[in-house]
Amino acid sequence: MAARRRIAERRNWPDNLYKNSAGYYWYKNPYTKATYGLGRDFKVASAQAKAANAELLRRAGEAGLINRIDSTTFTLSAWCDKYLEKYEKSGKAPNSVRAVQSMMRAIKDAPFAEHPINKVMTREVNDYIELITKTRGPAITAKIRSRLEDVFRSAEAAGHVELGKNPATPVVSPTVEVARDRLTLEDFVAIVEKSREDPGLCWATNALELALLTGLRVSDIANLRFDQVREGFLWVEPIKSQGSVKLKIPVSVGLAQIGLTIEDVMKRCRDNVVSKYAVHSVRVRGLSKPGHKIDLDTISGTFASLREAAKVKWRDGMTPPTFHEIRSLAIRMYSDEVSPEFAQALVGHKSASMTALYRDHRGREWTEVKVVAGK
């Protein structure tokens, strides 16, 4: 925990003690990087810095000694390695694995990471969550807190933490305010109309309408093949579900508000270009040749360009809707035209609560109060 080399006049200062240009002393925790004001009196500031350094050294030494005495107890850091190893072998999607790897690095950066896992205190976890909320933001911090709780839960199951003593459970997750605005049907129609202005973007028109009619994610739209349509159904195993969800969607399914069915759009996708993919290139573009599938980044990027060209507006303090917002629009439209239960089944959600999150229009639309006859 040694600080950088001192200038000559400060070589006798305690480590981690600093002074600003206004003559105010402050201390920086070398582990958490948090800073604390110590006033203008050097003697008082120096004494407090020495005391803090001594306590941090004591804690580090105590943890190291306990680890040596009880070699059967894992440190939190060591258990993170075991947890990650198991997760990497679980067959999860590559993006999910990378996300968990990133969270494990964050957890192993915690000041208590080298403590025995059964000695980590809730107060320590809470302090760390509060700290990284300020430095990394509430959204990623909420995910790290949740993952940390699962790390301790796995240690409970293995007998390394006393049952019911998960130190992360009582820690309140930071409030995450959703910043992305929703897409309305009017926005969607305007974007589709823009895509029709360029014949070379017919694939974009197909991708947009298939996304609305099926509720599929952009990754599934990019990989949709003609041979997935058979016996009057569209057979889909969503990539994100890793095989846990298998959808058999009638191609006759459609939305009255746009006057299209899945079958209508899939037939239109069969153009003069030979391809096994529904959403495919129709002209040479860079390394892409006619018939090549359109990758998901190109679909997302083209959506953003069309959104700008269509002059779609979003509210102050919000970020613009992305291609993924078509999924929410599909759920809202099918919930209204058919039922929430149908929308949940269509998109493969296992819980109604998840579908309800997508049905939330976040204040972008008016809710019609419908009168029931005879009531």
How does this structure look, described?
By secondary structure, this protein is mainly α. The chain is built from 13 helices and eight strands. A hairpin with a 5-residue loop joins strand 1 and strand 2. The longest helix is centred in the N-terminal third of the chain and has 28 residues, at 42-69. The chain folds into three domains: 8-69, Double Stranded RNA Binding Domain, CATH 3.30.160; 76-157, DNA polymerase, domain 1; 185-359, hpI Integrase, Chain A. The N and C termini lie far apart (73 Å). A three-stranded antiparallel β-sheet has the order 1-2-3. Helix 11 (325-337) runs antiparallel to helix 12 (340-347). 46% of the residues lie in helices and 7% in strands.
Structural class: mainly alpha
Strand content: 5-15%
CATH-scheme architecture of the largest domain: Orthogonal Bundle
In whole angstroms, the N-to-C terminal distance is 73 Å
Low-confidence stretches: none
Shape: elongated
- Quaternary organisation: single chain
Q: Please report the number of helical segments.
A: 13
Helix content: 40-55%
> The CATH topology of the largest domain is what?
hpI Integrase, Chain A
Radius of gyration: 28 Å
CATH classification, class level of the largest domain: Mainly Alpha
Number of strands: 8
Count of discrete structural domains: 3
Give the topology.
Layout: E1 17-19, E2 25-28, E3 35-39, H1 42-69, H2 76-88, H3 94-108, H4 122-136, H5 138-157, H6 185-195, H7 202-214, H8 218-222, E4 229-230, E5 233-236, E6 247-250, E7 254-255, E8 260-261, H9 262-269, H10 296-309, H11 325-337, H12 340-347, H13 352-359
Antiparallel strand pairs: 1-2, 2-3, 4-5, 5-6, 7-8
Helix pairs in contact: 2-3, 2-5, 3-5, 4-5, 6-7, 6-10, 7-9, 7-11, 11-12, 12-13
